[in-house]
């Protein structure tokens, strides 16, 4: 398809000196403009251009487009990949985040002189993350946590560990000490999500540059919890690069109805920099709200229909959290729809995988030669996993194993377990009690003790008592678990087969081939577009739009602006989102925005379009 730039896009293409800030709503061609701009720069003799983005998927997308255009001298990175290539951290543990967590816990406990303060550990983790989001770090001198932070840094350095947030710190330090490589243009996509250290890195990287460019949409900020400061994007200055502001106001992705609903939603945010996104009347995009008792089942039905009507269509299923996607993932796998499904996270099934692996370790003939850490992990998993259809079997195996283990070793496991338990949930304590009974009885009655205990508390019972889930979701989940177990039991002749069946069913083809059905949270889908989008509104987004927090509203806004043909918001009967679809409210919101100053910057094309839209709305 040939690309005919709009007047607004052409203005950006002509930019050759200074810091360009491009403010633009969803689907207005930010990424497209950036990629085409890079080509213009290359043709105009720019030799080293750096494009920075936030998300691996978006990076891949930009890289592919640039390669297709055969543009030379352009590097595309996420901030972390750029830092990684520069600092080359060695011997990275696979489970970096887990190691960081363990270190934080160790230090924090030491800091508190072993007081039982596990609940406050999250606060310490946040404190660490916050310090690392600034360069240079400005650790407050009198904060009680500052002392713990110093201990943490000493220990981290002593152990030679570099965690994700240290990569950026080390990279910024390296730039400062060794000098900045030459780039004549540095461009950042999704600049609203820059945090202070990323901004400092951007600033340093523009040292020799003629052009800096920040492209973003403040309404799509999703990383404030990671210290993103959209105000920085709005107000920042770089001394040697004079500022120029641009807007992209026409969305190419969706039509009026979608634009109005999106506007209606985001207009309720108070702390925003108002920006109007108008749609091209030629596109028809439907937005629907569907309320059902079992939204997941409804989704499966719709996907089945869609598969018949439009087999090649690209589809996204978006939910606010991975937990909310879990029943969807299960349902899709059970139904075995003829889609290639891609998800950025494998289905966890409440640690079912870990349990299966743990069992493998406990049953391994070379158990004694398996690293102690792994063995402790396996036992830890078995104790701390709250429920699972095959738990019974695991526990029986464990009992047998324990019966054969020297007493000291079991005691050692229990001691390690006590140390490594993340959160002392009642279930874990119960498991510990059982384990101790087991040891006390030298495992003689262990199987009996355990089987009595676990038959009373089966999987379904636990799901039904899961206070985090709504009733509908609980029913959905119970149903799908039951289906899965029935299916697995039918197929499997032995426990080993049962385990490998479950393992097989849930092993998603992560990156295997291009897939047209993609599941993920809103952070994953950010910056991407699909023909059809299904938004699983669930509890977090299912409220009245007015009651949502600003960040929640922004993430729902990102979710509902991904579709080119249709957005379907699926939620249970109690959801209150209906108002979102009442477009007369949206029209008022539009009218109020029309007087906004930013609109004075709109191109003539867009002004004309707005006038046309106003007439349509009034008629
Ligand atoms: N001048 C144009 N003419 C026609 N289509 C265009 C034009 N510019 C961009 N597009 C199309 O608009 C769609 C959205 O573009 P793009 O993904 O770059 O938007 P975006 O602003 O980065 O979106 P988001 O806010 O979701 O990150 C793409 O399908 C792209 O091909």
UniProtKB/TrEMBL annotation:
Residues 3-255 form the UvrD-like helicase ATP-binding domain. Keywords: ATP-binding, Helicase, Hydrolase, Isomerase, Nucleotide-binding. It is an enzyme of class 5 (isomerase). It catalyses: ATP + H2O = ADP + phosphate + H(+); Couples ATP hydrolysis with the unwinding of duplex DNA by translocating in the 3'-5' direction. Pfam families: UvrD-helicase, UvrD_C. Its EC number is 5.6.2.4. It comes from the Bacteria. Belongs to the helicase family. UvrD subfamily. This is DNA 3'-5' helicase. It comes from Alishewanella aestuarii B11. The lineage of its organism: Bacteria, Pseudomonadati, Pseudomonadota, Gammaproteobacteria, Alteromonadales.
């Amino acid at each position: 398809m040939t690309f005919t730039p709009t007047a607004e896009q052409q203005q950006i293409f002509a930019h050759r000196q200074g810091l360009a800030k491009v403010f633009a709503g969803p689907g207005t061609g930010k990424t497209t403009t950036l990629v085409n701009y890079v080509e213009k720069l290359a043709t105009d003799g720019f030799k080293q251009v750096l494009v920075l983005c936030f998300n691996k998927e978006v990076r891949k997308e930009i890289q592919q487009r640039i390669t297709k255009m055969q543009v030379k001298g352009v590097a595309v990175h996420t901030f972390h990949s750029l830092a990684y290539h520069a600092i080359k951290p060695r011997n990275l543990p696979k489970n970096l985040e887990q190691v960081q967590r363990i270190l934080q816990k160790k230090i924090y406990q030491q800091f508190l002189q072993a007081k039982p303060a596990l609940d406050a550990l999250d606060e310490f983790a946040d404190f660490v993350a916050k310090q690392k989001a600034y360069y240079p770090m400005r650790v407050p001198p009198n904060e009680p946590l500052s002392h713990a932070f110093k201990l943490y840094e000493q220990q981290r350095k002593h152990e030679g560990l570099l965690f994700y947030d240290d990569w950026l710190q080390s990279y910024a330090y390296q730039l400062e000490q060794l000098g900045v490589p030459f780039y004549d243009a540095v461009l950042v996509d999704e600049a609203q999500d820059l945090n202070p250290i990323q901004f400092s890195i951007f600033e340093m990287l523009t040292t020799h540059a003629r052009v800096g460019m920040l492209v973003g949409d403040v309404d799509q900020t999703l990383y404030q919890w990671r210290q993103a400061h959209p105000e920085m994007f709005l107000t920042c200055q770089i001394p040697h690069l004079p500022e120029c502001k641009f807007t992209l106001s026409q969305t190419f992705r969706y039509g009026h109805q979608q634009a109005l609903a999106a506007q209606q939603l985001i207009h309720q945010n108070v702390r925003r920099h108002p920006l109007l996104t108008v749609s091209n009347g030629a596109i028809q995009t439907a937005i629907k709200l569907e309320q059902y008792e079992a939204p997941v089942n409804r989704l499966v039905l719709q996907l089945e229909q869609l598969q018949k009507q439009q087999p090649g269509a690209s589809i996204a299923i978006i939910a606010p959290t991975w937990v909310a996607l879990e029943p969807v993932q299960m349902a899709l796998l059970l139904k075995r729809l003829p889609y290639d499904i891609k998800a950025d996270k494998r289905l966890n099934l409440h640690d079912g995988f870990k349990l299966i692996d743990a069992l493998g370790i406990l049953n391994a003939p070379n158990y004694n030669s398996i690293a102690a850490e792994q063995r402790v992990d396996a036992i830890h998993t078995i104790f701390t996993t709250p429920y699972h259809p095959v738990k019974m079997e695991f526990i029986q195996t464990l009992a047998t194993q324990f019966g054969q283990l020297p007493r000291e070793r079991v005691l050692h496991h229990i001691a390690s377990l006590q140390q490594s338990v993340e959160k002392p949930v009642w279930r874990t304590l119960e498991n510990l009690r059982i384990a101790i009974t087991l040891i006390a009885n030298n495992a003689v009655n262990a199987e009996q003790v355990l089987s009595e205990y676990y038959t009373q508390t089966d999987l379904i019972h636990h799901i039904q008592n899961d206070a985090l889930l709504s009733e509908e979701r609980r029913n959905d989940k119970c149903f799908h678990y039951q289906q899965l177990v029935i299916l697995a039991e039918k197929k499997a002749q032995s426990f080993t087969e049962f385990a490998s069946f479950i393992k097989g069913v849930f092993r998603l083809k992560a990156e295997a081939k291009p897939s047209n059905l993609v599941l993920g949270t809103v952070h994953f889908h950010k910056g991407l577009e699909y023909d059809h989008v299904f938004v699983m509104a669930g509890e977090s987004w299912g409220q009245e739009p007015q009651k949502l927090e600003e960040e929640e509203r922004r993430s729902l806004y990102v979710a509902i602006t991904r579709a080119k043909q249709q957005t379907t918001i699926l939620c249970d009967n109690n959801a209150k989102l209906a108002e979102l679809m009442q477009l007369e409210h949206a029209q008022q919101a539009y009218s109020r925005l029309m007087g906004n100053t930013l609109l004075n910057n709109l191109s003539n094309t867009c002004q004309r379009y707005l006038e046309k839209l106003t007439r349509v709305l009034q008629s």
